[in-house]
Amino acid sequence: MAKKQTSRGRTQDRARVAGGQDHEVKYEAKKEGVSKDTVKKAVKSAGNSRKKVEAEIGRH
Q1: Cα dihedral: 17, 22, 54, 50 (round 10)
Q2: pLDDT tens-digit profile of 4-59?
Q3: pTM, whole model, 2 decimals?
Q4: For residue 33, is it left (φ>0), alpha (ψ between -120 and 50) or beta?
Q5: CA–CA separation, 43 and 45 (whole Å)
Q6: Which residues does 17 contact at the CB level (< 8 Å), separation at least 6?
Q7: 47-to-2, 9, 16, 22, 51 alpha-carbon distances in Å
Q8: pLDDT tier, 1 (very low <50, low <70, confident <90, very high otherwise)
Q9: Alpha carbon distances (Å) from 8 to 2, 5, 11, 15, 16
Q10: Which DSSP helix (H) or strand (E) runs through 47?
């Protein structure tokens, strides 16, 4: 897993997309060339795994 320690001592999991975090949704939308709404729908249907979200977006 791609976990990273933040400056506050918390761990971050880069293999997941937090659908409720606007900056993560915006990043994934820009990366995939789709709208933020499309990313949110993909997270809701496929779960928060980044690989599954990207696969779900690729299917549409």
Answers
A1: -10
A2: 666 777 777 788 999 999 999 999 999 999 999 999 999 999 999 999 999 999 98
A3: 0.78
A4: left
A5: 6
A6: 24, 25, 28, 39, 43, 48, 49, 50, 53
A7: 17, 26, 9, 16, 10
A8: low
A9: 18, 8, 9, 20, 19
A10: none
